[in-house]
Amino acid sequence: VSYAYGYLGELQEQAGNTDEAMDSTRKALYYLRATPAAEISYRWQWQEGRLLEAQGDTELAIGAYKRAVGDLQTVRPVLAAGKMGQPGQFREEAGQLYLDLADLMLKKTAAATDAKAIDAELREVRNTVEMLKGAELENYFQDNCVAALKAKTTGIDHLGKRTAAIYPIVLSDRLEILLSLPDGLKRYTVQVSAEELNAEINRFRARLEKRTTHQYKRHAKNIYNWLIEPMEQDLQAQKIDTLVFIPDEGFRTIPLAALYDGKDFLISRYAVATTPGLTLTDPQPLPRENMKLLIAGLTEGVQGFPPLPDVAGEVTTLDALYDGAVLENNQFTQSNIAKELGDTPYSIVHVASHGKFQSDVKNTFLLTYDGKLNMDTLEGYMASTTYRDQPVELLTLSACQTAVGDDKAALGLGGVAVKAGARSALATLWYINDQASSLLIREFYSNLKDPDESKARALREAQLTMINDPRFSHPSYWAPFLLIGNWL
């Protein structure tokens, strides 16, 4: 009966009959009083919120949305793990609820004058968006435990000195940006629609991969003007040197380090890291003592994939820099990876091999000599390290790729550290020249030896080295490397 009244209310809402729709929706909720069924009630409370918003009652609408989110959170693991609806479709089916609530709270905040009330409201918006981030990752990996790392985090506001976190929230009619600074939260509103923004992001990504042209610059400048320029004065005033992005939708598919102000790349002024969510990140400094490195690499072509000849030099260099073990070519098998991770507490796991991240997690893999290593299997191998006193600090994947415009695949890449149980990951958005890759990797690991360098700054220095090398100055060579998760 509840479903019948609820769907009738939905049809009436679509027809513009708000009063009739409200009557049907409240009847739908009435019939659930004796049968608590959160997987039904969140739909009708969401619907009630939309109708209240249409009637101009913002406070009651926010209350209805919050009740809907509360119910959705109780069934979210079931929904997000694909037990209801199509796998990978959580954002389309239920994720919009979080954005609707954030949207309305932001509109309310715009009219507020009390600084404390505004700050509290913005923190609630941020927490709402964080809930969506966790749900999206669980949905992509079809794993309702993937966000379990939350229990180990140190808190959303412990960013470190001179570090700012940037939350772009992509709404249908505008871009909202929350900036977490050491002294509090700030909010910026940019009048660009989701459609225009995502189209420009896709153009930027497609042109950035063309190494023979500089057509990407116009698009890099437009995105810079939308995302960075509004907050530039605040960043400079607080002497920020590290930016941590929590990217949304299309922003996940591009290397934000390559945004361009007309003169310099963003990386020229800031170290840049990304994370799928601050509550999914454990920002702890990298312990430099007793660091052990497990290196797994393929130089030979296997299973139809081309060889990676420069990986040999990469392996030799890293082996000289750090203690550890090397699994190369026919030694790089799934059973050997499992044995090494089970027997030895490695600080860093470095995989120099082909990898693909796709919309469907079932088609996402890392290439080993004897097969394709999927994310569930990798998680199983690393599970023994996750709950040690010193879990894997860094998982490096140096020859990955995602498709242009595929934000779900990029979501998977962005969540690989969380899924695998590592504190952070270094991975590429697209496959690049393995000579360039090897050079950047060598620079990054050399920089990482310095106890005063964070992982984000070590990557920045390596990217600046590439920019200053005429062979690899084009961002197609250095930009696709993303530091994901713990940036310290």
Descriptive overview:
The protein is of the alpha/beta class. Helices cover 46% and strands 15% of the residues. The chain is built from 17 helices and 15 strands. It has helices spanning 2-14, 18-30, 38-54, 58-80, 90-110, 115-141, 194-208, 216-227, 232-237, 311-321, 334-343, 375-386, 407-414, 416-420, 434-448, 455-467, 475-478; strands at residues 163-170, 175-181, 184-190, 242-245, 271-274, 292-297, 323-328, 348-352, 355-356, 365-368, 371-373, 394-397, 400-401, 424-428, 481-485. The protein has a six-stranded mixed sheet, sandwiched between helices. A five-stranded mixed sheet has the order 3-2-1-4-5. Helix 10 runs parallel beside helix 15. The N and C termini lie far apart (54 Å). The model has no long low-confidence stretch (mean pLDDT 91).
